[in-house]
């Protein structure tokens, strides 16, 4: 698919919000995954670096040219704006009230946003509190944490798979 074809293609109604992501490689990887699944947009918040950037490009492999993105200093403003636009916003975080990803059900004709936080501190408590809810990727090992790019890949794939059942009568 060409860049123009990508821009004209019907997008998956999912927005990714990256807040205070330190690793440029993680940012690039999320762009690449977002390109793969036709994600609508990425918000880069706080200290999260923005394209053009040589280190982001190493892992994005050109996806910064296809996936729409916007920078905002304040993730709370982004979350509030998305919610006011009718988007359901979920933090991806391990908290007591979180819904396990496999149990999360997509509503037909609903646009979603998922918020990923800092590699060390996660999604801020203030951001978690104003989201519509929290989703957790269940983990059974000893570490109970995944790299942000890995987490984004798992969540984006899961949303894509669940959303596409509403738009296609067959899958691949």
What does this structure look like?
The chain is of the alpha/beta class and 172 residues long. The protein contains six helices and seven strands, in the order αβαβαβαβββαβα. It has a seven-stranded parallel beta sheet, with helices on both faces. Strand 2 (39-45), helix 3 and strand 3 (68-72) form a beta-alpha-beta unit. Helix 2 packs parallel to helix 3 and helix 2 (24-36) packs parallel to helix 6 (148-164).
Q: Approximately how much beta-strand content do the residues carry?
A: 15-25%
Assembly state? single chain
- Measured as a percent range, the helix fraction is 25-40%
Q: What is the terminal separation in angstroms? A: 16 Å
Shape: globular
**What is the overall pLDDT average?**
94
> What's the number of extended β-strand segments?
7
**Count of alpha/pi helices:** 6
- For the report, how would you describe the main beta sheet? 7 strands, parallel
Order of helices and strands: HEHEHEHEEEHEH
Low-pLDDT runs of 5+ residues are: none
Strand order of the largest sheet: 3-2-1-6-4-7-5
Overall SS class:
alpha/beta
Q: Roughly how many Å is the radius of gyration?
A: 15 Å
Q: Can you give keywords for this protein?
A:
single chain, 172 residues, alpha/beta, seven-stranded parallel beta sheet, 34% helix, 21% strand, globular
């Amino acid at each position: 698919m060409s860049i123009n074809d990508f821009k004209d293609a019907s997008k998956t109604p999912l927005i990714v919000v990256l807040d205070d992501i330190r690793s440029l490689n993680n940012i690039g990887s999320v762009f690449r995954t977002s390109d793969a699944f036709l994600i609508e947009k990425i918000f880069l918040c706080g200290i999260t670096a923005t394209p053009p950037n040589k280190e982001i490009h190493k892992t994005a492999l050109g996806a910064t040219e296809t996936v729409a993105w916007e920078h905002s200093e304040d993730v709370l403003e982004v979350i509030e704006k998305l919610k006011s636009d009718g988007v359901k916003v979920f933090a991806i975080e391990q908290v007591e009230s979180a819904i396990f990803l496999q149990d999360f059900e997509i509503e037909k004709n609903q646009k979603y946003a998922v918020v990923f936080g800092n590699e060390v501190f996660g999604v801020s408590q203030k951001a978690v509190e104003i989201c519509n809810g929290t989703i957790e990727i269940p983990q059974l090992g000893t570490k109970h944490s995944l790299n942000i790019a890995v987490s984004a890949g798992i969540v984006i794939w899961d949303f894509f798979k669940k959303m596409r059942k509403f738009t296609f009568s067959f899958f691949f």
